[in-house]
Amino acid sequence: MSAGAAPTLRLLLTADWQIGLRAGQLRERAGDLRRERLRAARRTLEVARSSGCELVVVAGDLFDRPDVDADAVDGVVSLFAEFSDIPILVLPGNHDPVCEGDVWGRREWRSAPAHVHLLREAREIELSSLVGGEVAPAALYPCPIGQKQSRLDPTGWIPSRAEGDERLRLGIAHGSLDSMGKATNFPIAHRRAELAGLDFLALGDWHGTTILERAAYPGTPEQCSFGEQGAGSALVVTLRRGAPPQIEQHRVGRFHWVQEEVEVRSASDLQALRHVFDAGGSAPESTIARLRLELAGGDLQLIERSEGLLEQLREELFFLDAALEVLDLSEVEFESPLLAALDASLHALEQGEPVPDALDELRAAPLEVVREARLQLRRWMGAARGELEEAEA
Amino acid sequence: MILEEVRLRNWRGVRGEDGERAARFQPGLNLLVGPNESGKSSLLEAVLRGLLDRHGSRTVDLRRVRPWGSSLAPEVRLVLHAGGQRLRVEKRFLSDPFARVYVERQGRFELTHEGDRADLHLRKLLLEESKRGSAKASHRGIAQALWYLQRDDPLPRQWSDALEEGLASLVGSVLTDPLQDRVLQRLRGELASLFTPTGRIKARSELKGSQDERDALRRELEERRRDIGRAERYREELEGFQRQRGEAEERLRAVREERRQLDLRSAGAPELEEEIARLSRGLEELRGERERGRRRLAELEQAGERLQAAAVELERHEDREAQLRVAVREHRRAAERHARRWEDELQPKLVLVRSEIEDLRTKMRIEQLEAELEAIDRRMARIEQLEAQLAEARQALTVLGPAELDDVQEARRLHERATVLRAQTEAAAIVVEWSLDRDVEVAVDPDDEPTSRSARRLVTRPTALRIDGVGTFHVRSNDQKLETMDQESRRTRERLTVLLERCRAESVEELLERSRQAGELRRRVGELAARLAESLEQGDEPADDGDGARSPSAALATRRRELAAELAALRAAAPQAVLPGMEDWAEERTLDQLRVLEERRQRLEKQIREEREAEQAAQQACLERNEELVAAGQLAAGLRAESGAHRAELERHQSAFGSVSTQRQRQAQLQQEEQRLDESLEERRQTWREQVERPRERQQELARQEAEWVERLRQLDAERADRRARIEEVTGLGLDSRIGDLEGKLAAVEDRCATLERRAEATRLLGELVAFHEADQNASLVEPVRELLDRWLGQLTEERYRGVSLGDDLVPSGVQPSGYDESQPLESVSHGSYEQIAVLLRLALGVLLSSDERQLVVLDDGLVNADATRQQRLLPILEEAAQHCQVIVATCQPSAYAGLDAHTIELEATPRWSPRVLARDAEPGSSSR
Questions:
Q1: Is residue B145 part of a domain?
Q2: Do B188 and B296 belong together in one domain?
Q3: Domain end (from B631, B655, B679)
Q4: Which residues are within 8 A (CB) of A47 and not within 5 positions of it... i.e. 6 or more apart?
Q5: Are B6 and B42 spatial neighbours (Cβ–Cβ below 8 Å)?
Q6: Position B692 in a domain
Q7: With a threshold of 0.80, does the pTM exceed it?
Q8: What is the ipTM of this complex?
Q9: Residue B10: what are its φ and ψ, rounded to 5°?
Q10: Most exposed among B137, B266, B312, B794, judged by the fewest C-beta atoms under 10 Å?
Q11: Are residues B778 and B910 in the same domain?
């Protein structure tokens, strides 16, 4: 706080750490991703320290589940202990609500250091009573969550600013702004800050960073799944009585999540896909990708090149979830009438064309099996050809 | 592959340094001829073992090849044509074994394969992949179909896999290329690695491993989720406990608040209790005084009541006494009245009636006696009459004489006998009639009757007729019987006469009449005697007739005397006055009158009896009432004394306590005072109950409730602590991370499984498609075999069979007789035909398989069961087949193949092959026709 001027408060707003996220979609890398989330949290707190924040506000969903492992809670408490110079206010969210048997009553959390304050009651709190020392006069209006779901506005209890009250008024809540126009979980009036005379409303729940006039979602510091937009940041908010809040966005997340569906018709399509990762701006080891390659009219060589590329990316990227679907295979010259008859039968099955009665039962074969059979036939034929050529040589 | 030359050493019968044997074959038809034991089969065996048996093999079968009793090593050398090359094969077994394959290049044989490689190379010539030797036909590769040796089954149930593969490969040699071979080989390898023969996933395949891993991960994940689900359940329980705790706290607060309020309300309890105690004491004193007054009043009232009661009792007893006196008088008068009634009124009437009854009875007795006397008189008169009649009858019976019944019967019998004899005699008698002219005496002797001048006599006995003057005639029957009859007749008449005299009867008729009369008299006597006895027995007991015995008549007379005496007595005694007017009364009227009098007498006696009983009852009642009267008098006296005592007691109480009314007024005053005090006390007590007692009870109840709620809270806190501890226990297990890891791992394994399953299913699909298309190709193999076989079979059987039912596996199942639509099972044809079909099938296969390269077909005495006709028909078939493939026919009957255009190799039936043959073997090639 600067002396003589309007009370100023500089805080770091973060939320939705989702510590303990299972992340099963990342297959064998699930454990690595869980550990990475704690590293992102550390980077967030380092931003607070480096930005001179007087306060860290975690606006809900610090933990992903009430039953998160004791080790995860221990990890968070230990991390907080490393930043004892900054008061940390933690708001329970809908993933870690205040309730009987909640994570906050666990032994690991109870050993949290004194500068960590759990805002478990919806009541006005004088900031100085929490953090002590020289801090701008400010009133906190925490809106803790007590259950997983609700249609009630958790900020509804915040009183309007009393006449003559010149303190900074800071609301802290977890939920969805009702500006989306649809029924949401824990809906929050999008004009709550104005209605209640708040200087700022710190919000959590949305994983993408969203900054409004007097409210903001910092988003999750590390993206949780494919499809999330704008994740991976923390916000440094400077509040001054009578002035709009100043908000700075800081990147704290490591991973870039890429999801692509590519139609491969030629080798150039594969080169383009390769370029996406080469010129994507993020290190491959920090990239999590999901690729859907659809090959239409490709030959065996293109298939093998596609498979080679996917294998290469799988080696390079932090995680790759890839699927290669061969929609249609180009025609191949079969010297052997038997092999030609085989492929013709498979083609007929694939296309639903008539087959001899003896093969009628095979019509029930799934399409992907039929396509795989055609692919195998080509693969084996290619391998045999190679072996013959080698023998010839 | 065809065979050019075979040479063997130390092979069964071939032994010693010169023990080598050789034969050369032509590419076409070869006839291996020799008698039994000449070694044809050994030669063919050596070829097979040279091609198929491993040189290092030491099987029992192979050891038997060694010449018997020796340790010599069997050797075979072959020259073959295969794959466009001329090969030489050398093999030695058992001792220092070796195997070598040479290929002819530029006129020289060069060693190309040796040892196991040579063995392998040779087996491949017959497409045999196994290493199991040639002992079994199914291990001979393609030779299974093309070689038909002795002891082999004509047809197998199924061609071996190797043969099927070989056949397919042979066919495929026309249709396929090496690329297809490799692809199909890869496919079969994949199928074999993925699936069991029944189509299930192989246990050790990668797919199965992945599936197992997936299932294990699913199970573990499910288990871990269940474990961590416990935390959720504990949390739900905690929420429940929390709700219960909130309710319990609320209830506890309410209880405590109520207790506080109750404490406030019960603050004035001591003053109120003091006032209640004071009022209670005053009330007790008042009640004591009132009780004492009530007891005094009670005593007064009791004394008065006792006096009153004694007076009432005395009065009641005096009334009773008076009533008893009246009753005594009444009973006494009643007794007197009843006595007068029966003594003065009824008793005289009874006496009179009894007198009248007695008179009537006397009258009736007199009349009875008179009637009885009259009856006795009548009886006695009748008895006298009967007795007279009886005497008369008895007299008449006496007059009739002494004839007894037996006499009468005897007389009747004699009379009848005499009559019969007389008639018989007369019938047999001699009739003598005479009529004299003059009247002269005719004397007849014996003379029975007078004679006259003319007479007629029956002569029954010697009779002399003396006619006076004439002389005497003697007449007699010449039959003695007549005289006998006559004599008997006479004796009978004499006896009858004697009897009649004894009975004093003149004739038999008289005797019979007298007998009848006597019988009637006897009946009459009996009847009269009975009637007399009856008359006598009627009436009383028989009277004593004076000598001790009592006769009926005497008794009757006695009775009559008694009755007469009685009658006389009655008449004498009966006063005439009693009976006036009754003399003429009929008995019935007398009886009616007597009955009336009897009834009157009974009524009178009953009335008298009743009156006397009434008199006695009245007297008894009088006595009883009198006794009661005495007792009542005594009781009344006692009561009078008691009443006096009560009166004295009452006067004593009144002098002590005052009057009853005074006491009652005092009691009323005390009662009012007590009521006032009681109401006041009850009011205070009500106030106390409301303000003190009930709050205290409620306090106790609330204290109990408070304790319960406190305990409940303690329990809930314990439960909450327990659940929290359990949650911490669950979360301390690292389940959440483990579940995340498992989910990730499971997703990866599921991906891998899906890929492997897709690939496996694709492989299976390819396998099924290949099977389908190969079957299609097999059909193209079977058809030419069938065509050739059908043609040869028709040729052999002269169209008896028009074809063979051949499956896709090239195993025949039946034959098709000409003229029938249906196939005939192969088992139903003769063994010879069956064997011939097997030979034809092998030849057909040989022809087919020789399309690219000649193949060797071997028939070792395979047609031994063919008749001569079929044997001859088979020769052109062999020649036709030999145009396409090499055929070796081994036989011991060369004549059966006479005329066959074949290369012949002759073997001799010697234990060892002859030097002549050996010498010729030096120039392989022998004779040819």
A1: yes
A2: no
A3: B655
A4: A12, A234, A236, A250, A252
A5: no
A6: no
A7: no
A8: 0.91
A9: 55, 50
A10: B312
A11: yes
Go through the domains of chain A in sequence order and give each one's CATH number.
8-251 (3.60.21.10), 256-392 (no CATH)
Residue B758, min C-alpha distance to chain A (Å): 5
* Residue of chain A whose Cα is closest to the Cα of B242: A100
Residue labelled with tokens 């009468």: B408
A 244-303 → B contacts, CB under 8 A: none
Nearest residue in B to A26, CA atom: B744
Examine the domain organization and report whether B146 and B294 are in the same domain: no
Neighboring chain A residues of B762 at a CB cutoff of 8 Å: 369-370, 372-373, 375-376
Residues 6+ apart with CB under 8 A from B237: B719, B723
Neighbours of A270 (CB within 10 A): 20
- Give the distance, in angstroms, between the CA of residue B749 and the centroid of all CA atoms in the same chain: 64
- The per-residue pLDDT for B166 is 55
Domain housing B608: 270-364+586-655
Q: Does B208 touch chain A (CB under 8 A)?
A: no
In tens, the pLDDT along B612-640 reads 999 999 999 999 988 988 888 888 888 88
The minimum CA-CA distance between A43 and chain B, rounded to whole Å, is: 22
User: How many independent structural domains does chain B possess?
Assistant: 3
Percentage with pLDDT > 90 across chain B: 21
B261 in any annotated domain: no
Instruction: For residue B653, give every residue at least 6 positions away whose Cβ sits within 8 Å of its Cβ, in sequence order, or none.
Output: B299, B300, B303
Would B351 be classed as within a structural domain? yes
Put simply, whether A181 touches B (Cβ < 8 Å) is: no
Helix, strand and coil in chain B, % to nearest 5: 65, 10, 20
Mean predicted confidence (pLDDT) in B238-249: 92
C-beta atoms of B759 and A377 within 8 A: no
pLDDT at residue number B920: 39
Interface touch B759/A372, C-beta < 8 Å? yes
> What gap in Å lies between CA B801 and CA B870, rounded to an integer?
13
Query: How many beta-carbon pairs under 8 angstroms link A with B?
Result: 179
Q: Return the CATH number at B629.
A: 1.10.287
CA distance A167 to chain B (A): 36
Chain B residues with CB under 8 Å of A384 CB are: 178-179, 182-183, 186
Cβ neighbours of B746 in A, within 8 Å: 24
Cβ of A24 within 8 Å of Cβ of B735? The answer is: no
Task: Show Cβ contacts of residue A113 under 8 Å, excluding neighbours closer than 6 positions.
Answer: A77, A80, A81, A84
Res A139: pLDDT: 96
Distance, CA of B268 to CA of B258 (rounded, Å): 18
Same domain, B29 and B177: yes
Q: Are residues B354 and B437 in the same domain?
A: no
Reported as a pLDDT band with limits 50, 70 and 90, residue B923 is: very low
Residue type, A277: F
- Determine the angle formed by the axes of helices B206-265 and B735-796, rounding to 10 degrees: 150
Q: Write the residue in A69, A339, A368 that is nearest to B737 by C-beta.
A: A69
Chain B CB within 8 Å of residue A369 CB: yes
Tokens 């997340």, located at residue: A253
Please, which residues 16-55 of chain A have a Cβ atom closer than 8 Å to chain B?
20-31, 34
Using a CB–CB cutoff of 8 Å, tell me whether B761 touches chain A: yes
d(CA A72, CA A53): 25
Tokens linked to B505: 């009867």
Closest partner CB to B724 (pick from A34, A101, A381): A101
C-alpha–C-alpha distance, residues B221 and B218, integer Å: 5
Together in a domain, B158 and B275:
no
Final residue of a domain: which of B628, B655, B682?
B655
